[in-house]
Amino acid sequence: MKIPGENRGIVTSFMPILERLPVLSWYAKTRGWYYVISWLHRFTGIGLLIILIVYMYILSSLQAPDVDPAKMKVIVSPIFLLLAWASSLVVSFHALNGGRLVLYELFGKRDDADMIRWIFGLSAAYAAMVGLMMAMNNQRVSAFFFWLMAFSLGAIAAYVVASRIWKKRHSVLWKLQRISGAFLFVTVPAYLLFSYLNPGEADGAQRVIVGVQNVFARLVFLTLATCALYHAGYGLFSIVADYTRPGITRAGMAALIIVVIAALAVSAFRLILFI
Known about the structure:
With 275 residues, this protein is an all-alpha fold. 79% of the residues lie in helices and 0% in strands. The protein is built from 11 helices and no strands.
């Protein structure tokens, strides 16, 4: 299926890579590059929810008075660090592609050929920066200043989106999904990057535990957790709604999503408030 704009450089730039990946290459050739992008956005969104669950488990494990040495060995193992670095690709792609969708939906900006090239380029640049911070392991920043800037920029992005969409004829839930996405666009990449700053104070996820032990940090992380879980729940329901008809099946899936997100919210709030 031919998509307008593919002949402007997208296929030329990325098809050699796709041709080496059996599943993606087949879909790119038969359904179009934008079909692949849309599903990559969904898969990375699901991946981010899985990453969040794993990260919450790690943080809760590190709160124990006597941390299991075996768990610490796993956390600092090369394989785990490689997976942690790979998560930066998931974070950056989902955030940047979400930004592309917001620009189109709210501002009518649709230069997909160039934007998609920028998404891949900036995703690689962000992953390279995270990898550099992990490898150097000697960069420091004031936690208060870092989160003051990240929270402020995220709040500004959310306000810009909210001011643009609040009077539109969409449901409040739809609007909150876009607003939360704007806030997460800044704060989630910042959170991942912060995990690899200020070495020596603690290792890995323990740095986040140290950083969250003040009132302002708790406020930031509570807001971040609320937005992330709502955004994830809405995204999961959107996928379900695309492939089920209104009725018992959709209602059952929606109820299951609500229960899972609520359980994760309780765990996240307890983790943040009583860390």
